[in-house]
Amino acid sequence: MATSRGSDSHKRPLPMDTDGARVLTASHPNPAKYPRKRVSVACEVCRLRKTRCDAARPKCRFCSNAGIECVYRQTDSGPSPNSKPPDAPSLDSQVSSQDLATLLARVQVLLQARAASTPSDAPLVPTSLPWSINQDATEQQQEPPATTSSAGYDGLEQVNSQPSAQPSPSAVFTESPAAEHSDLPCLVGLSLYGFAKTATKPCPKQLEPLLFDDGEDYLEHEHEYNQRILDPAVYVDIKDVDLSVKACWRNQQSFAKSVLPWVPVFDQQLCAKLVQEVSANGFDSCDPASSLGLFVLALGALSRAGDESSQTSVSETPGLGYFRIASRKLDVAANGQDTVTIAQCFVLKASYLLLCLRTLAAFDAVHVASTIIARQMARKKWLEQETGRFEACHRVYLTCYILEHELRAVIHYGTELHQYERLAMPLFHTHEPGFFWLLSEIALRQIYMNALCGVGSTARVAYAPRVAQELISQLDQWYEHLHPTVKFPLGPEPVLDTQKAFLRAQYYAARFQVNWSYVVQFLTTIDLGVDIDEKSIMLDGAQRAIEYASLVISSAQSLCQDRHLMLFTNLICTFAVAMMLLCIIDVPEFASLHDLTTTVAAIHQARSILSYWAEINPSISVNLGRLDALMRAKGMDMAPLEVACNNLS
């Protein structure tokens, strides 16, 4: 042994040799008796846990602190001469695996008890993770990098007595108060954060009413409705719904007139053929075609009763029986299948829920359809085998594209179909009512996306006058190139065609959104002092924003009198624009930019629109409450226009 040690003294010591000599100096006065590998003298508990052991006799530090029995293997060199006799009788040298498992179980129980008794102000360090803190500060500085991965329980005692400068990941999340999470992304619920502040400046005081969090209330309302409309305890048999020839034709005609132009997933000829075939079979099968036909009848029944918007009970919703049977059949048919017909079923299911103003459940259905159709679009060879497949896939793809974008006002995530700018247009072989509307809406979506800077609470206003001018130029070109069948007149006069009126409201909303950046920038820099020319530019943009805000609300007046597929978009836009108008209505610098009577009338008009639908939708009722509270804070209350204007002036 002495000769071997002498021959090794001229070699460069390994990291473990250096570490072993250092530890041995503290507990063993004879370095020659200490093996080259520290694991050779580690106790059985530390050996199995693969943690550092100081090899102290009769108990190492870990076993002593944990209050468990420390067991060492017998070696040829025998016990250390300085070791004391054990306090308890030792086990045999050959310890069974069952005994070791029992010891480890006791160790885990003791560790959990120690973690439970740790003070709340001490950092929490998981003992089972490899990045636990080492024994002490001096040893940590001298420890070679090769041995840091074996750190374990040795430092837990010092962690409890002395807080570490590097807390564990769990401590980072558990110790932060909830108030500090106000800037976390808001993925669900209506959020106007993006209209309240720029990317680098805090929110102006005038726009603070826009910083509300609607996520939790929104989820509660939507989940409650979903449980009622899709209650598994309510079973609707196919015999409980009207499947007469008259009912099928009336509902089918209403669907083709009021719903299909908004979601042209197939043409009218295919719709008529579909309903005729599945009605001949009695809707008994669970194939996707049967479910699709029942969704057509459900949407037709609901769209025919569009003027009956005062139902407060879910059971009174027209077409609900068709819808529940179709949903049950779809769950069976969609099990493990991804076909275009199933994607069409989910689109129609989402359409029914949108007519009921239930956006969360509608998004869930659209999301499934988007996922299915995105996968089908990747099967290029399969699409080329039949001419109708390509058109059917692109119809569903672009319909999901539009619905997902409209739902981003309350659901801020999805399949991100809108990020693909190269969109193949569907091949319409016949003149369909929704053909030019779909193409015009797709083009407008791209301009909308260019004007957005994030979603939810992560959104911010980007003040870039040149970009704003380019977007306005694109909006002008979009309007100039509209087809005569969907081109709308500019101005506040009502438009009877629903799709034309919707395009006009979206056009005004886009121009308002682009010019709103001038309002936010002006309120942000009002106390900092800006150049006169720059101030003039911002005031001109603010004036245009106020003008288009009034036009948005007046355009929504005719759209919100009856159910249509995009009604939820108009209601959200009306509330948002009215809130933003209220925030700046009493700004002195904006007093000369608008007619106060006209602006107050627009706000009252928005409130009237929302109150009409607040009876059947709790989310709209909550938004109406926010609007009323801000009106009272501004001195408007629900007084007549003359009184409200006098209070503001």
From TrEMBL:
Biased composition (Polar residues): 136-151
Family matches, as InterPro entries: EcdB-like_regulator, Zn2-C6_fun-type_DNA-bd_sf, Zn2Cys6_DnaBD
Region (Disordered): 1-33, 75-95, 136-176
Lineage, top ranks: Eukaryota, Fungi, Dikarya, Ascomycota, Pezizomycotina
Record SUPFAM superfamilies: Zn2/Cys6 DNA-binding domain
Keyword Nucleus tagged: yes
Keyword entries, A-Z: Nucleus
Low complexity bias (residue ranges): 161-171
Pfam families: Zn_clus (PF00172)
Protein name per its UniProtKB record: Zn(2)-C6 fungal-type domain-containing protein
Zn(2)-C6 fungal-type domain ranges (all copies): 42-72
Statement: the UniProt record of this protein carries the keyword Nucleus: yes
Signal sequence segment: none
One MF annotation (Gene Ontology) recorded for this entry: DNA-binding transcription factor activity, RNA polymerase II-specific
CDD domains: fungal_TF_MHR, GAL4
Species this protein is from: Fusarium vanettenii (strain ATCC MYA-4622 / CBS 123669 / FGSC 9596 / NRRL 45880 / 77-13-4) (Fusarium solani subsp. pisi)
UniProt-listed PANTHER family: ZN(II)2CYS6 TRANSCRIPTION FACTOR (EUROFUNG), ZN(II)2CYS6 TRANSCRIPTION FACTOR (EUROFUNG)-RELATED-RELATED
